[in-house]
Amino acid sequence: MAVKMSRKMWVIAAIVVVAVGATVGVTLSDSPTDPANPPDSTLSVITWNDTTLSTFEGTPVVLNFWSISCVYCRQQLPYLENVALQSEGDLEVVAINTRDTASRIQRFFGDYEPAMTIAVDQNGQAFRDYCLAYDNAGGYIPFTLLVDSEGTVQDKRIGAFASEAQLWDTLNDVLGITAPETA
Q: pTM, whole model, 2 decimals?
């Protein structure tokens, strides 16, 4: 269960993320020799900690690259958030912002604390690496990768899911994860 943070704590968190990102930068491993295995990028996370894809080892991951200025990205965010809320730990949703600052992302979400992990690609290098590794040479967003519990990319989508149902259907087809039953 997520802990609610005050606006002051969010501002402090955003400042810490920006400061750490500016000081340390984004650490990236070399591009994978096996395209099925995603780069293990270290990304600043709005919720205080840095994360890498290997952090979620053993859990399937929806890895989504997005930006506030992208209309289709914003339309898709509620689908991703609902999947994160409903998956009950069977799946991790990581939304990586490719263009905006931590403070702008915080203003965008306001007082709402997402269930999905919101990460910031400070210098865009992780996004470029993933685009090269997974045939998105144009750098289009939204760009979504479905990664199985063993860390292998099983599917990619350039463009938005048309609905939450389409996202669940894809998760079922690719990773065998089904939407929870509703009463």
A: 0.75
